[in-house]
Design brief:
The complex is a heterotrimer of chains A (179), B (132) and C (363). Chain A is mostly helical and 179 residues long. Chain A has seven helices and no strands. Chain A is 73% helix and 0% strand. In chain A, 45% of the residues are buried. With 363 residues, chain C is α+β, with helices and mostly antiparallel strands. In chain C, 38% of the residues lie in helices and 24% in strands. Chain C has twelve helices and 17 strands. In chain C, a hairpin with a 2-residue loop joins strand 6 and strand 7. Classes of the chains: A mainly alpha (179), B alpha+beta (132), C alpha+beta (363). Chains in contact: A-B, A-C, B-C. Chains B and C meet through strand 6 and strand 8 of B and helix 1, strand 1, strand 2, strand 8 and strand 10 of C. Strand 8 of chain B pairs parallel with strand 8 of chain C, so a sheet runs across the interface.
């Protein structure tokens, strides 16, 4: 039996694979506090959103969360829950924010907003389930700073990738045949 | 796509006015979070001990009366606007009630006969133990 | 791959910040608070695994409870048996037949007598009857009717520690009016015993607080143990200081055990010469450098200084060999010895503002 795949499926698979790879690389870097990571895989999500559409970005993001957790042996673990909750809230925010006028708001804004939404999603899971204690509030300012910092950097990277059209668009066209 | 790995150092030339607004707003939000959640001035909680056990720790940012049962009877502990005090106690001399409001981290009030102690805890106590 | 260094640097900065915060959370500090010895006891042990620290602390608390039972100055209403001290007091009252006492109590009596003599009788644990007539030999204090005649009679009876003869673990008194109340000695003694026990158990760092009297062992991690000194009239610390290894601090105050009558405060520190509670002083704090009976001195030495009048306090301190002391009088004026002033950090905003702190050099 063969499943019929479309060009979109190929694209999603390729992008998701790339996002997973980035996630893996980042997983190897030790972080003293779970949750404080540069989140470079999110660059892929954002890039995909702005280059293609929300549906594709959502697929890439969710696939990345599931596949990464399976590969890291964290499926159904608290880490998975954190990853998923962060991704879901972040996607929701992107879905709303993507309609912001492109004249004033670039990928940078989206990245920062998504980053804050991401940590919010994670902190909710932490507070309600993992560490139901008021002392969690001490972590919030740290996470917020990380979200701001890495959100900005990831956004700048994404913007650079998107808006320096030349090489990338060409290579994409030849790879996929169409946009 | 692999060209992403060869991404050059990001520059700010892509920043639009909305982006700056986002950044400013985010910085303000983060600063606000540090302010409220990491406040150093006031103690954030009161720890109530009965006998040698910690009974509970309550946030000071509320208005409530807590009834606790000690060695000789029930006492009432009153929390209001970041301060706490014994408002009622079954002890004879009422020293604990006369201690008045506790407001800063490290301050404590004890009812010896009833074996109840209140202590304000913040992130850092100014000293390890109190000589009295 | 020039984007990596930025992330790495950022990670490094965050790692340091978070390591700092996690360090705060993961201290190997064991702390327990308990109502023993008729008062609040606080024990902190640093650098021991929790189970061991718990065991050690429990043993110390148990020892305190035993000491308390042994030295109780009045029969607790709940138990039927008097304490060893109570039995001794009864024997004293009934005549001068020697009775057996434990070697520990014998040592205590000899030591207390020595200190009493050194303080020219100002530290006088033999005035139990006076203490009791002021109503301070109870768990809670109410105003008592002041019977001056009775008080004068008790003063005239002149019970002194030197009336007690201790020999071969027996004791008797030549004066039937002697009633021992080791309240101003027992806490200090317990502190010394606790410190000795912990040291024998190879504990390097601990802080023991019995009813306000504190002795320090080692440090709190990388920093010395820090101790606050209670403000006599506010639920806050008036000053703080570091307590290094072996140092002890004690305060006698009029704000813990007292009653008010007709607007006047009567505290539990009684002048043996007048028979009346001291009213000119709010608190006296003494700091004792490391020595064998640092705990005892931290308890005992503050009383004579508390009792003497303002002009004589410095002289009394010198007489007892106390170099570090602070006096807060009834008007809240503060007098500190130079040596102690250098160690104190003032916490009270009023004191910091007015600086009405007088420094004294010892004669």
């Amino acid at each position: 039996m063969q499943i019929q795949t479309t060009i979109d499926d190929h694209r999603i698979a390729k992008l998701a694979a790339f996002a997973i790879a980035l996630h893996m690389v980042e997983a190897v870097i030790p972080s003293p506090l779970p949750g404080v990571k540069p989140g470079i895989a999110n660059i892929v999500t954002l890039y995909v959103l702005l280059k293609y559409d929300f549906a594709t970005a959502a697929w890439v993001s969710i696939l990345r969360v599931f596949a990464s957790s399976l590969l890291l042996g964290q499926f159904m673990s608290p880490t998975f829950a954190l990853s998923l909750s962060g991704a879901l809230l972040s996607l929701g925010t992107l879905w709303a924010a993507q309609h912001l006028p492109k004249r004033y708001f670039s990928a940078i804004t989206l990245s920062i907003l998504a980053a804050f939404a991401h940590i919010a999603g994670q902190l909710i899971v932490v507070r309600l389930w993992l560490i139901p204690h008021a002392s969690v509030s001490y972590l919030i300012p740290i996470f917020a700073t990380a979200a701001l910092f890495f959100g900005l950097i990831n956004g700048l990277i994404t913007a650079k990738l998107l808006y320096n059209k030349t090489q990338l668009l060409e290579s994409d066209k030849t790879e996929h045949g169409s946009t | 796509m692999l060209s992403l790995l060869r991404s050059p150092k990001p520059t700010f030339k892509h920043m639009l006015i909305g982006d700056w607004l986002t950044i400013i707003f985010s910085v303000m939000l983060t600063a606000y979070l540090f302010q409220t959640l990491w406040s150093h001035e006031h103690a954030s909680k009161v720890q109530i001990r009965i006998g040698d056990k910690v009974y509970a720790a309550y946030d000071l940012n509320q208005q409530r009366d807590i009834k606790v049962h000690g060695a000789i009877g029930d006492a009432v502990i009153h929390i209001s606007q970041g301060k706490v005090r014994f408002s009622k106690s079954p002890c004879h001399n009422q020293y604990c009630v006369h201690q008045g409001w506790l407001t800063r981290s490290g301050q404590a009030a004890i009812c010896l006969p009833n074996q109840i102690s209140l202590e304000l805890i913040g992130e850092q106590k100014p000293y390890d133990s109190l000589n009295y | 791959m020039r984007k990596w260094p930025i992330s790495l640097i950022a990670i490094a900065i965050f790692a340091m910040a978070i390591a700092g915060i996690s360090a705060l959370k993961q201290e190997p500090l064991y702390h327990t608070q308990s109502y023993v010895f008729g008062t609040l006891v606080d024990i902190s042990i640093y650098g021991e695994p929790e189970e061991r620290a718990k065991q050690l602390a429990n043993q110390v608390l148990q020892d305190f409870q035993n000491l308390h039972n042994q030295l109780h100055a009045w029969k607790p209403a709940s138990s039927n048996q008097p304490s060893e001290l109570g039995t001794l007091n009864t024997a004293f009252a009934n005549g001068n037949k020697p009775i057996n006492i434990s070697p520990q109590l014998a040592t205590m009596l000899i030591d207390a007598t020595d200190l009493s003599v050194k303080s020219q009788g100002l530290f006088n644990p033999a005035i139990g009857h006076l203490v009791s007539s002021w109503g301070f030999q109870r768990d809670e204090f109410t105003a008592v009717n002041i019977d001056d005649t009775k008080i004068q009679a008790l003063v005239k009876a002149n019970p002194r520690m030197t009336d007690i003869v201790v020999k071969d673990n027996t004791a008797y008194s030549t004066n039937p009016n002697v009633k021992l109340d080791l309240g101003g000695y027992a806490k200090g003694y317990a502190l010394d015993k606790a410190a000795e026990y912990l040291r024998n158990q190879q504990v390097k760092n601990a802080l023991v607080n019995i009813g306000g009297n504190i002795i320090a062992l080692g440090q709190h991690g990388n920093q010395p143990w820090r101790v606050g000194i209670q403000h006599p009239r506010k639920p806050a610390a008036i000053a703080a200081l570091d307590l290094a290894d072996g140092w002890a601090v004690g305060t006698s105050g009029d704000y813990q055990r007292y009653f008010t009558l007709n607007g006047k405060r009567y505290c539990h520190i009684i002048d043996p010469n007048s028979g009346y509670p001291v009213q000119h002083t709010q608190s006296v704090t003494v700091l004792i450098p490391p020595q064998k009976n640092a705990g005892v001195l931290s308890d005992v030495a503050s009383k004579p200084i508390f009792i003497t009048v303002a002009e004589d306090k410095a002289r009394t301190a010198a007489m007892l060999g106390i170099q570090y002391f602070m006096v807060i009088d009834q008007k809240s004026n503060i007098v500190v010895s130079n040596a102690l002033a250098h160690k104190l950090e003032w916490l009270d905003p009023e004191v910091k503002k007015n600086s009405h702190v007088k420094l004294v050099t010892l004669p």
